[in-house]
């Protein structure tokens, strides 16, 4: 059965609202924000403000909103009671949130700035489609900072359909300090973003240190 388009009259304009059961739902224009619940409000707020180079749009004892671009907020933090159950590392749910940089230089400069402030990553990996650096916030939520390795989506998808990606969907680890020195030395960022192929690789246990 096909549901016919509904006609909507808006002043002198007549528009058709396509509402067929076999059509795709209209996609949003962007992912607006992420919200964290925490029993460690002050440490979380300090961390995220520093981590993103963000501005606090509003904050009180119960909630905080942070922005770093044209949106009024990209991250919100909601205060929970002190006896709130901590997140279990092997529980189902959200894996991580990711933030994209314009260039490899930008990604690595932000890494060095965070390092100078005592914020260190736990994993640095070239996935193939992206060069990525992973962190944890004070509540052990995982954060990915990344740069796209290809000029456009078609090139990225072509790599993801390749035998190299099928063999290793995890990626190849790298040393961010070494890579940053190469960027500063003027090496081609396009070449540095090209993944070094290492053959098959299993998904690493990224929660091992949290469980200790």
Describe this structure in words.
It is built from 7 helices and 11 strands. Helix content is 26%, strand content 26%. It is an alpha+beta fold. Strand 1 (6-10) and strand 2 form a beta hairpin. Helix 2 crosses helix 5. A 5-stranded mixed β-sheet has the order 7-10-9-8-11. A 4-stranded mixed β-sheet has the order 3-6-5-4, covered by helices on one side. The N and C termini lie far apart (56 Å). The chain has 2 domains: 32-85, 2,3-Dihydroxybiphenyl 1,2-Dioxygenase, domain 1 (Roll); 95-195, Roll (2,3-Dihydroxybiphenyl 1,2-Dioxygenase, domain 1). It has helices spanning 41-52, 104-116, 153-160, 163-167, 176-184, 189-192, 208-211, and strands at 6-10, 13-17, 34-38, 55-59, 63-67, 75-79, 96-101, 123-126, 130-136, 142-148, 172-173.
């Amino acid at each position: 059965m096909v549901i016919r388009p509904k006609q909507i009259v808006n002043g002198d304009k007549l528009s058709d609202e396509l509402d067929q059961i076999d059509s795709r739902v209209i996609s949003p224009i962007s992912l607006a924000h992420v919200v964290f619940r925490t029993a460690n409000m002050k440490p979380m707020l300090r961390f995220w403000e520093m981590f993103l180079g963000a501005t606090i749009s509003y904050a009180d004892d119960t909630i905080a909103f942070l922005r770093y671009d044209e949106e009024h907020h990209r991250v919100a933090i909601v205060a929970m009671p002190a006896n709130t159950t901590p997140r279990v590392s092997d529980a189902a749910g959200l894996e991580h949130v990711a933030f994209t940089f314009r260039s490899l230089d930008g990604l690595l400069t932000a890494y060095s700035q965070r390092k100078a402030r005592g914020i260190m990553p736990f994993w640095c990996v070239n996935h193939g489609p992206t060069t990525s650096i992973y962190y944890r916030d004070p509540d052990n939520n995982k954060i990915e900072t990344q740069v796209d390795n290809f000029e456009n989506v078609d090139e990225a998808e072509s790599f993801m359909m390749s035998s190299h990606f099928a063999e290793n969907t995890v990626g190849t680890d790298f040393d961010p300090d070494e890579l940053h020195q190469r960027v500063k030395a003027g090496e081609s960022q396009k070449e540095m973003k090209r993944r070094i192929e290492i053959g098959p690789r299993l998904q690493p246990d990224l929660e091992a240190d949290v469980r200790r």
